[in-house]
């Protein structure tokens, strides 16, 4: 592990259903600060998991921060079928693009991708947030896709949802609710 460096201290990794931030690497094992699953915001459980180094050779390892420090995150905003899609998307783009954390990432990512492209075949044409539209049953789903640091994802999602809910309360976005 110390020679091939599939991860370093502070990397966010997942191996054999263990997900966490690497806090220590020893000769025989490494330790991760365990995280809850993605649906529960990947919050730290406070549990330190000791993982034998041999698992790196026998299990699939995901490293969320090897090539660059950001991941793609998505959130789905449901609006009624009768809502104005263009106005809803305009309001959502405004909210997402005003988020300070999201706003700063494309500049950082350009440099990170240039550096990583020497070692990995990673190419992105668009690093700015995008909203996809899909009709589902009796409503429309607007999927907002954006880059975020994995350790800041829950905070960013919380911030975005608060602003979306406030815009809905002010009548600027119609959120879908089942009758």
Can you characterise this structure?
- With 179 residues, the protein is an alpha+beta fold.
- It has four helices and eight strands; from the N terminus they run ββββαββααββα.
- The strands form two sheets. A five-stranded antiparallel beta sheet has the order 4-3-2-1-5, with no helix packed on it. It has a three-stranded antiparallel beta sheet with strand order 6-8-7.
- A hairpin with an 8-residue loop joins strand 3 and strand 4 (44-52).
- The radius of gyration is 19 Å and the shape is elongated.
Number of strands: 8
| Computed Rg | 19 Å
What distance lies between the first and last C-alpha atoms, to the nearest angstrom? 55 Å
Structural class: alpha+beta
Low confidence ranges: none
Overall average pLDDT = 87
Fraction of residues in H or I helices: 25-40%
* Order of helical and strand elements: EEEEHEEHHEEH
Q: Strands across the major sheet, in which order?
A: 4-3-2-1-5
Largest sheet: 5 strands, antiparallel
Separate helix tally: 4
- Oligomeric state as shown: single chain
* Gross geometry: elongated
